[in-house]
Specification:
Blueprint: H1 30-33, H2 52-67, E1 94-98, H3 107-120, E2 125-130, H4 135-139, H5 151-156, H6 162-165, E3 167-168, E4 174-177, H7 183-189, H8 199-204, E5 213-218, H9 224-232, E6 235-241, H10 244-263, E7 269-276, H11 283-296, H12 310-317, H13 321-324, H14 329-344
Parallel strand pairs: 1-5, 1-6, 2-4, 2-5, 6-7
Antiparallel strand pairs: 3-4
Helix pairs in contact: 3-14
Length: about 350
């Protein structure tokens, strides 16, 4: 028997080249789409315009400063975010829905670690586990089967208050509303309720005056529970894995957000989209992120979360990466994301 390696008749095959990422039609952000139907704002009082020379010099200095900044993973110069100052008082809270109907994109990981990073900067944070799988609860060391009351009791039983279900985490300033499989029944039971889209809004109302941030970890679907989270929120953060299927899913999510804006919550905004599980070594990851920036521009956070084995390890440990591996690259990235969120949300 011949020991020669098998080769095609015409010689070795050429090296494979990664195909380009197909174009995906993404709807524009809602605020821009409806900008022409908003009533004109009151003109600001007349002010003394700065001299043209001074304005030009300031713009040139700002442009030069940004030009000297290192390039970030999104292909834009990475801004220098200020160090947040601690707060002496708390509230009113900004409620943020961590939402993406595609599973496995890092919603729960981002909710836990962004919340922990915000708490490090002196903010009082409440994390709401609004997923029947209870992953957020497990990720913070809470056994979903050992809790007396969960978010299900909070939204379905008017006699249960927020104080009855809130648990303290091991991170100072970080509280949690746990969840378990009971929540899966709520979607069916809410169908016959009056104003079924607003039940979470009512349940979280007491938290607004007590916390600086309330972050809702949504389930990977666009069902009634997710609509409740969007109706209760001021903003949406979309964690998105840097791969093609996740890019397609963003288009459907933005359409849902726009429907909620039109019919239930006109004040809802997209706070930003954050790339997770990003691998700068692959052309595909870089192309997907470039397409996202092309469609949403400044809505895409400058911070991208890279893949690391530390994140699965933190889940087993039941604590955020900011305390489990405080000097790791993942902890640094979430602290940067927290700074960026605070910079985008004045007053928080």
């Amino acid at each position: 028997m011949s020991t020669q390696p098998l080769m095609p008749p015409d010689g070795p095959a050429p090296d494979h080249v990664a195909p380009p990422v197909p174009a995906v039609e993404l709807p524009p952000p809602h605020a821009e789409a409806h900008a022409d139907v908003r009533p004109p704002a009151e003109p600001p009082p007349a002010a003394e315009p700065p001299p043209a020379a001074e304005a030009t010099a300031a713009e040139a200095a700002a442009a030069e400063s940004m030009a000297n900044r290192p390039m970030g993973p999104t292909g834009r110069p990475m801004p220098l975010f200020p160090e947040p100052s601690p707060r002496e008082t708390h509230g009113p809270a900004r409620i943020i829905a961590m939402c993406n109907q595609k599973g496995g994109v890092g919603k729960t990981t981002t909710t836990i670690n962004l919340g922990a990073a915000l708490a490090e900067y002196g903010r009082k944070v409440l994390l709401v586990d609004f997923d029947p799988q209870g992953s957020l609860s497990v990720g913070l060391g809470v056994n979903p089967y050992d809790i007396d009351k969960s978010v299900y009791d909070l939204i379905m039983n008017r006699d249960v208050t927020l104080d009855d279900v809130v648990l303290k985490s091991n991170v100072p300033g970080l509280d949690i509303v746990p969840s378990n499989i009971d929540l899966s029944a709520a979607e069916v039971q809410l169908v016959t309720e009056v104003a079924r889209e607003q039940v979470l809004t009512r349940a979280l109302a007491p938290a607004v005056a007590e916390y600086d941030f309330v972050i809702i970890d949504c389930q990977p679907s666009l069902g009634l529970l997710t609509v409740n989270a969007l109706t209760a929120s001021h903003g949406v953060i979309v964690p998105m894995e840097a791969e093609f299927f996740a890019l397609r899913g963003v288009a459907m999510l933005v359409e849902t957000i726009q429907k909620v804006q039109d019919r239930l919550n006109p004040g809802l905004e997209i706070d930003g989209l954050v790339a997770t599980m990003f691998d700068s070594r692959t052309v595909h990851s870089r192309e997907v992120l470039a397409r996202l920036v092309e469609a949403f521009d400044e809505k895409v956070f400058h911070t991208a979360i890279a893949r690391t084995v530390r994140f699965p390890e933190t889940t087993v440990a039941g604590e955020p990466i900011t305390t489990f591996a405080t000097s790791s690259g993942g902890a640094y990235s979430y602290r940067q994301l927290a700074k960026e969120v605070l910079a985008r949300c004045p007053g928080t």
